[in-house]
What we know:
The chain is mainly β.
Amino acid sequence: YCVCPMIKGQEEEHFQTPYITRTLSPVWNFEYEFHEFKRGAALQFAIFDHDIASGADPLGKVMLNSPDFDREDGFTGELRLREAGQGIKATVHVTVEVLPPLLPPAPPISVPGVKLLIRIVGARGLRAADWTLRGPGTSDPYCTCELAGKPKTKITTKHIAKTLNPTWDEEHELEGYERGDALEFTVLDRDLGGASAEALGRAVLHAGDFDREGGFNGEVRLVDNGAGKSAQLSVKVTMVFPTPEAPYVSEHGSRLLVAIVRARRL
């Protein structure tokens, strides 16, 4: 199988292909879309042998730098793997294309004191975290959302039992947003046995995607969701603006008229 991280400084996001059994010339035909590409980021392709008993054994790796694919025609071709073993001339064939933004640039509309209305609709294509001898595996998923770097803002949905395509359709109001803050979503499997919740995938929605006229309404891809899975999370994010304060009408020398009209059944 192949692991591909996108590397920019200390930041890293990665995906992993499914593994192919008993072959020295695997064909994956696997596509993955990084939600946000930062100019200058590099890609590394590292191939491993899948072995449950002894752990992953590296079979070779290669780096593809940004200038090689951040161009109009992208990159398609063979890359020579390094550290593939003495006398081994292994290669990996890849295609990399820089895609335009999902949404055109738009000015932010947030103001101090604004709240976010988060509607977590559902997810699809989750991996199974719970397995039984009676049938295919399932999960008991729930979703959390918080402002990046602000764990006290976390909101949590209820869990849905035994499904890989949950529908929560919950709305939560989130306070503490400041212009530029990203939203972090995590889908987890609820474990009734007392073990720690197991992550089923995560997604980041950057401020530019929702701090705009109309907000955000759509799907985001979940990463770290299991080899070979292509899970999606459906969310809607809009802004709730603070009620504007009405200007004072009183002035020096103003009077105040109060009328007490009636009382009943005292």
